[in-house]
Amino acid sequence: MRKNLHPKYRTVVFHDTSVDTYFLIKSTMQTSQTIKWKDGNTYPYHTIDISSASHPVYTGEQRATQLEGRVQNFKRRFGSRQLKGSR
Q1: CB neighbours of 73 closer than 8 A, spacing ≥ 6?
Q2: Average pLDDT estimate for 31-48
Q3: Rounded to two decimals, what is the model's pTM?
Q4: Residue 32's domain spans which residues?
Q5: Do residues 66 and 74 lie in contact, with contact meaning Cβ atoms separated by under 8 Å?
Q6: Does any domain span residue 84?
């Protein structure tokens, strides 16, 4: 195998700035910033806008929004109709 072909795989701290959550994950992300972690070690640091801590699919917010839209759409289309033969 060729040497120095693959990027360096290392532990990186990702910071979700929308909910102020930190993740310590292995990654090939290249960054010049560093941060001192809770264990006393210094790790590469990278900020992100959205993660599993803030994404609507993972927090459950999107499902409720879609459900409300579907119910309103159903009521709009069929809510005022009465079934034939019913009194």
Answers
A1: none
A2: 94
A3: 0.62
A4: 10-78
A5: no
A6: no
